[in-house]
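Known limitations

Structure tokens in this collection are predictions and should be treated as such. Users comparing against experimental data should check residue numbering before alignment. To illustrate the layout, the record for Transglycosylase SLT domain-containing protein is reproduced below. The input appears on top and the generated tokens appear beneath it.
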Amino acid sequence: MSQPSRPMPAGAAVVGLALLIVLGVTAAAALLITRDTARDGAAERTGAARTPLGDVRDLTAPVSPFPALPAGPSSPARVVPSSLDRASASVRLTPPHLIAIVRRALTPAALDGISALRDVRKVAVADAGAIRFSTATLNLLAVDPAEFRAWAPKAVAREPEVWDALARGEFVADSKIAASYLLKLGGEYATGGGSRLRVAAAAPLGLPGVDGLVGKETGRALGLLPGVAVLLHTARGKESAVVPRVRKLLGAEAQVVPVGRAAAARPSASAAPSPPSPPLVAAAGSYRVGRPGSYLELYKIAAARVCPGLSWTVLAAIGQVESGHGRNNGPSSAGALGPMQFMPATWKAYGVDGDGDGTPDIWSPYDAVPSAARYLCANGAAQGGAKLRSAVYRYNHSWAYVDKVLRIADGYARAYS
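Generated tokens:
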């Protein structure tokens, strides 16, 4: 006859329960530690909290092997960027007759008031400001290329490369400024903020006091003031009547300057102004990397060609954190896409056609990797040190992300030295 079973002492039950909890936590930690590192970038991008286990794991700065790249098209679906209309016939020009500059952003009430003025037909608002550009200080407007194209002189509106360049985040200089400062088309020049701008075109903009144009996002990165420039298209011959009304709405400190036909009609203006020179556009192809056979080659070529001075290991580290070198291309919960996890608005400004197939494709590594190099370089990454850290921070606004990327970059440098 078997002995009757005895209940487990309370102390033993507690010990057993504690052991089960420890084993459970250990198993969960092991699962967390083995997660694909590519998911960390998405978590940081959406603001998800980082766990202590994640921080411990990050200290090891693991490096992932580089996968081969496909010989054929790499994207599951192509994202067609919002292209600017290339047919000049479809662009209905409304050239500015007045430009007003104010000290602070135009209020909605002031904008409504200007739009409601008699003889004012159309109004556009732009960001503006002065930046240090190479050895000069230039006054820039930051505009939406699709919206601003109708405000440009006819010859400039007809040149699609001017507007494509603005959408890519490049600089369009006024023709006279480009000649005065001997700006080289296709050259990249340092700005006062430590970034660099490529001179994509020189065009006769016809805007007094405006030395060049950039896109809206580039303007924000340069620190231009939002909403301080106002362009007005008026009824013919009514410009002088509109000026005092605009000044009354904007205040005594506002500058209101005639443009185009209004400027030519002033008594002090030359009776026979010389015709404007046609736009000059830089040759494309500065960001071409071809179609190398592996991510390792692609990172090395992109860094060397697009951003000399930037180590390929930084590109590789970002590629690992963001997508595991193309293994997890998103979209993320924040809407980031592709192997380098670009937000669509940033891609519009910085995306390039790296393999020369005619379309900058956010899903293609051949386009995304040189685009990432371009974005980093525009923010001073090639200068190393604090500038490099700042550029990586701009890629993903988290200092923990910066530390992680640079640790992984060091790991690649040791592994592939």
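For this record: Strands lie at 98-101, 120-133, 136-143, 171-174, 188-190, 196-203, 212-215, 225-234, 255-258, 280-281. The CA atoms of residues 105 and 228 lie 5 Å apart. Please report discrepancies through the issue tracker.
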